[in-house]
Amino acid sequence: MMAQYLEIKSAYPQALLFYRMGDFYELFFDDAVAASAALDIALTKRGKHDGADIPMCGVPVHAAEGYLLTLIRKGFRVAVCEQMESPAEAKKRGYKAVVRREVVRLVTPGTLTEDSLLEPRRHNYLAAFAQIRDAAALAWVDISTGAFHVMPLPSVRLGPELARLRPAEVILAQDADLQVQDLVAEAGAAPTLHSRAAFDSTAAPGRVCSALGVASLEAFGTFDRAEASAMGALVDYIDITQKGQVPLLRPPVREAGAAFMQIDAATRRNLELTQSLSGGRAGSLLATIDRTVTSAGARLLERRLSSPSRDMGTISDRLDAVDLLVTDVTFCTDLRDALRKVPDIDRALSRLSLDRGGPRDMTAIRAALEQAEALASLCQGRDLPPALKDHVANLTGHETLHALLDAALVAEPPLLARDGGFIAPGHDADLDEARTLRDEGRSVIARMEGEYRDETGISSLKIKHNNVLGYFIETTATHAEKMMSAPLSETFIHRQTTANQVRFTTVPLSEMETRILNAGAHALDIEMRLYSSLKAAILDAAPSLGLTAQALADIDLSAALADLARDLDWCRPTLDSSRAFEVEGGRHPVVEAALSQTGDPFIANDCALTETDNGAVWLLTGPNMAGKSTFLRQNALIALLAQMGSYVPAKSARIGLVSQLFSRVGASDDLARGRSTFMVEMVETAAILNQADEAALVILDEIGRGTATYDGLSIAWATLEHLHDANRCRALFATHYHELTALADKLGGVENATVAVKEWEGDVIFLHEVRKGAADRSYGVQVAKLAGLPPSVVERARIVLEALEQGEREGGVRPKALIDDLPLFSVAATPAPSPTKSKTDDLLAGIDPDTLTPREALQALYDLKDALKDTS
After folding, report:
1. Which tens digit of pLDDT belongs to each residue from 435-477?
2. Nearest Cα to Cα of residue 21 among 52, 54, 49, 56
3. How far apart are CA 493 and CA 417, in angstroms?
4. Where is the DNA mismatch repair proteins mutS family domain (predicted)?
5. CB under 8 Å to 17, separation ≥6 — which residues?
6. Taking 70 as the threshold, does the pLDDT of residue 405 lie above it?
7. Element (H or E) spanning 47, and its range?
8. CB atoms within 10 A of CB 446
9. How far apart are CA 439 and CA 452, in angstroms?
């Protein structure tokens, strides 16, 4: 056995080998040591190898999926080795023959299909990046749904596209650049180096055609060599990991980068589109707006949010669909009620195609088709916009398949086909008979006993059973002579004579005995045959089922966005080909949702970037905590939501199509790559200034704050001028450098705006209102006080600030010149003011409201009033 294990393991040195031993998967040697630590299970030993104990651990087969998920999340790959014959079959080849085993599947992050291993509401992409001379391409597939895409992609765009797709695993050629490997790792994907032969662009088209079952790829578009190479590598890797079980892939869709709003990785991270800065889904824009009721609808929402469209017709069609459902509340509610009962067609189809499915996947498809017909009926006779009309047309046409599944399957089948019991009674006569024999064998024998009594006229005749003879007919010796005489002797065959009884059998009884004994296995064989037939019927209809699944997802998303817009009072945006950006009463959806939990209102703000030949820039000043970053982000999100095809959180919005969205908000470092906070800031700013075109929307916050004051001011100054003069785009530029506000007089496309605050008795009150104009100060000391700095530090900061401002007014005295007269920090020099108690304080301290009578409470008020008069 161990020789067999080592031979199989040698073919999968980079994977943990799950070696099937009866009801367990066992791991040995280094695999056992690594798995026991990762899974927190006991490490034991079995036998010896080269004189040393062999480490061993194992997991039960019935619980293997949970252990697989843990290992995959911790970066392992797992080769699943199954027994391909029973021990009894092995013994036929010899007493010491080892049960034949083979690896049936290589489990990797990008090749998961089981529901228990996947997040139902997001895709699990496997991608491949190919480079051929100066050309490059990225292909990606979700084998759990069959979605297959490819796009030409310059190497410089690899990072942003990986950030958009968030693949679980990326296949690279063995000689791939280290820089490309680093980009994959930075995107959070598992890089997999694959043989260069798998990327052969000459063999790739044939490989892809074979996987799709077509003769040519021409019907799906024209693909260059790099695109063919990436697709071919994907198919080759899938074939290797799935051991020839190719999943149900849809025809490849060729995407063009110009069709979508370009958003780089830093912007996605800063805006928290699909995950928050902490790394989870909670707190992201996706989590806030997701009201879909199907898994496919949720996955479509993430795709749309990650890839806002730049096609006016597409956006308009999506908004028309949402518009109808916002207006017709009853229709929208009815659709959502029906959609809640729709299972995941795509993933059920994929599992069936890979032979990892079961009867429940079939009943899921049956239920989905039933709800699809119900949705089509709801839409019948309605004047629908073009997008919805096309989707409704794809909901029907499966009547034959639905009728077959409805007739063939029970209401609640078992998880696994091998458990049997999933075919409905009455669907197959042979199966019904086998089940009757299996479940009611005794009653069948009783009926035969009655028939033989009638035939022989012997009322004491009985049919009995023992382990030696099986079923037999027994009668007394007196009646036996009759049965051994003609014509009964032709039917009844003598088996045995005892002291008082004679035993017979008949051909029908022997046949019935065999059928009863084999009835259970026979019933299961029939069910498995019917299962294969049903699976073939479903897979034959896979192309049209895929269209139905897509239609259901689209309808779900439109209804979800309508429900969101109606509930939160969002408006339909107006989009055109100009460079306008006019938002009235805009709100940040995530911040507003958080405030609603506490009952606090969100202060809405307008934003109007005036179109000029040199772009349109708002220079935003004001204190920290006043809401500048929220204002910047909310306008970026409004543009993104609009081009996704959603209503937006505002009273009104007119937006010229945005080609690129850039965001440089917040501070972070990248210590692993030796980058300081300031270096990260400069790298991201450089990317914006080098790439933003005239149709871009840029939001920048506090450029230059990570370095010395004058260095930072000069960088911010030059950046603002470059945005205005060179990029000529729309931008929101927040800063604490009030010197920049003078540029509004010099640069025609720059306007000043500020976040309003009020001062009250030395404290600052945030109004969160954005107004035209410039702030005169940053209120940093007041914000520091709100943050909880010790009173002595706050007071000392006031003194230093006043001295610095006075020096600046009186001739630009540098801080260094003040050090001798004004030590930087001295607790003794600036003691915290001692609190003084007044007569009013003493009176309040002596009042216990719970014990006062009404008369005493009135007298206390008079006393307090007199004390206040004395104080004034």
Report:
1. 888 887 888 889 999 999 999 999 999 999 887 888 999 999 8
2. 56
3. 41
4. 696-712
5. 5, 8, 9, 27, 28, 31, 78, 79, 81, 103
6. yes
7. strand 44-49
8. 12
9. 22
For the domain 429-525, what is the CATH code? 1.10.1420.10
pLDDT number for residue 556:
98
Write out 711-734 in H/E/C secondary structure: HHHHHHHHHHHHHHHHHCCEEEEE
Cα pseudo-dihedral 332, 337, 341, 345, rounded to 10: 0
Rounded to whole angstroms, how far apart are CA atoms 117 and 75?
Answer: 14
Summarize the annotated binding site for ATP as residue ranges: 622-629
Query: Would you call 142 helix, strand, or coil by DSSP?
Result: strand
- Residues annotated within the binding site are 622-629
Q: For domain 2-107, which architecture applies?
A: 3-Layer(aba) Sandwich (3.40)
Element at 756 (helix H, strand E): strand 750-760
Q: Are strands 470-476 and 462-466 parallel, antiparallel or unpaired?
A: antiparallel
The CATH architecture one would assign to domain 119-255 is 2-Layer Sandwich (3.30)
Task: Count CB-CB contacts under 10 A for residue 147.
Answer: 21
Give the burial class of 481: count Cβ atoms within 10 A of its Cβ; 0-12 exposed, 13-18 middle, 19 or more buried: exposed
* Residue 745, C-beta contacts closer than 8 angstroms, at least 6 positions apart: none
For residue range 149-169, list pLDDT tens digits in order: 999 998 889 999 999 999 999
Q: In whole angstroms, what is the distance from residue 456 CA to residue 428 CA? A: 35
- Residues 328, 331, 334, 338, Cα dihedral to 10°: -120
CATH 1.10.580.10 for domain 309-418+530-567: no
Q: Mention every residue, 6+ apart, whose C-beta is less than 8 A from residue 294.
A: 339, 340, 342, 344, 552, 553, 556
**Rounded Cα gap, residues 522 and 524, in angstroms:** 5
Query: What letter does residue 692 receive in the DSSP assignment?
Result: -
What whole-number distance in Å separates Cα of residue 803 and Cα of residue 829? Answer: 15
CA 43, CA 31: separation in Å to the nearest integer? 11
CA atoms of 59 and 63, how far apart (whole Å): 7
Torsion sign, CA atoms 269, 273, 276, 279: negative
Instruction: Say how many C-beta atoms besides its own lie within 10 A of residue 508's C-beta.
Output: 12
d(CA 354, CA 255): 27
Q: What is the pTM of this model?
A: 0.84
| Pair of tokens at residue 265 | 């990785």
CB 502 within 8 A of CB 492: no
pLDDT digits (tens, 9 = 90+) for 530-552: 999 999 999 999 999 999 999 99
Q: How high is the pLDDT of residue 399?
A: 95
Looking at CATH, the fold of the domain delimited by 571-784 is given as Rossmann fold (3.40.50)
64: three-class secondary structure by DSSP: helix
CB count within 10 Å of CB 808 equals: 12
CB atoms within 10 A of CB 659: 18
At 631 the three-state DSSP class reads helix
**Nearest CA among 48, 49, 70 for reference residue 59:** 70
274 pLDDT tier (thresholds 50, 70, 90): very high
Coil, helix or strand for 776? coil
Lowest mean pLDDT among 392-401, 417-426, 526-535, 780-789: 780-789
Could you list the beta-strand ranges (E) of 221-298.
253-254, 262-263
Place of tokens 């669907």: 427
Whether pLDDT at 131 is above 70:
yes
Q: pLDDT per residue over 344-372, tens digit each?
A: 999 999 999 999 899 999 999 999 999 99
| Residue 827's pLDDT band (cuts 50, 70, 90) | very low
> What per-residue confidence (pLDDT) applies to 238?
94
Helix/strand/coil for 145: coil
Q: Which amino acid is at 490?
A: E
What is the Cα–Cα distance from 9 to 103, expressed in whole angstroms?
10
Q: How many residues does the structure list for the chain?
A: 872
Query: Would you tell me the crossing angle of helices 791-809 and 780-787 to the nearest 10 degrees?
Result: 170
